[in-house]
Amino acid sequence: MAADKSTYGNSAVYVVDGCRTPFLKAAGKPGPFTASDLAVYAGRNLLARLPFSTKEFDQLILGCVMPGPDEVNIARVVALRLGFDEAVPAYTVQRNCASGLQSLDNAARDIASGNADLILAGGTESMSHAPLLFSQAMISWLAGWNRAKGLGARGKALLKFRLHYLAPIIGLLRGLSDPIVGMSMGQTAEKIAHRFGISREMMDEYAVRSHQRLAQAQENGWFDAEMETLYSADGRFFTYDNGVRADTDVDKLAKLKPVFDRHFGKVTAGNSAQITDGAALLVLASEEAVRRHRLKVLGRLVDCQWAGLDPSQMGLGPVHAVTPILQRHQLGLHDVDLWEINEAFAAQVLACLAAWNSDDYCRDELGLPSAMGEIDQQRLNIDGGGVSLGHPVGASGARIVLHLLHALARTNKNKGIASLCIGGGQGGAMLVERVTAPQPVTPRPTDSQTTEHNHDDAE
Question: Is 334 labeled as catalytic in the residue annotation?
């Protein structure tokens, strides 16, 4: 199909630059950075190296699932902390695991439509700061306590109090559960693992490879161009994704017990994404802005697709989001140079690969005549993924796009797809290309310059 059938039509939407923080594994207590702290760190040095001021931005868009109580419309908080002019608007988007990708898509649509030239977009999440909540029983008791007037009424209210009211509700666990189908995200991973016959050994082998690839990338400095060091208020600093376990192996992972189905399950903490804090921001620009400011570019956002499916099989979302993009651009799986499929669970990524290679699934679920084929895993998540470096839900979509563009440059490849499964039964995908920047605009000479030039020629 013609290029103008894609989400952004024939408009060029460029990624000028980007930056992310190290992804920090949660350690059982609130980490040293809030979600807005992380986004500010990701944005501060990024903005400092741009050849124009923040006044040039048309807006800031930020994905975040669980901003703190002091970070309502966290995008605006981050914009002002970064020194954006008060006249520059900012808003927050939330599409669960793909919130960071949603922010990029929103920004790209605004640029493609001509409504904006420069947008700072991305995502942030501090999962270690997810709230503990009171139960409804405790809330009701507190309401009665507040209404009680005088010692007698307060005494009666105290008699109604029960110690179990104090049992907290863990907001993170509730957020990682689907209220429609009554399943946690891990249980949905178990379901699709069973559907496609994915064994525990296959999951653990995939997890080991994710850690090995991340360790190699860190050793070779392949994240240096996209990452900035974090400095905490207590003097600590963080320079790399600290969830990596370079020494892990299948035997070690085999000792871990299933988490979501303790009797028959295969999904463990070792072959699942880690609970993590992190942020990633990208500068998106129109062709006119690139020319005007003489900007270099990392690449171009070409197309984006969102899809819905059975929430109990949400891990297959990438299959449903990627396939329409491939069809629009007349591409096969083998035509994509590099893939970033977010590793929510090893089982989930492996199930996506199995679905594309299944005649039954492609025919019954995607309406295709036969299987699409196999993805070469040497092109998939070549520097690790969520299993090894973590999945801060609001940020991952932006991170995989940023890293995909850097990986394409490093490997001298041109075309890549980034995709995520989304809690609630959705999938998101984005097609990117590595391209060169358009030539800058050459200013026309003024009348005085023309006269002076002609005078010199006469001499």
Answer: no
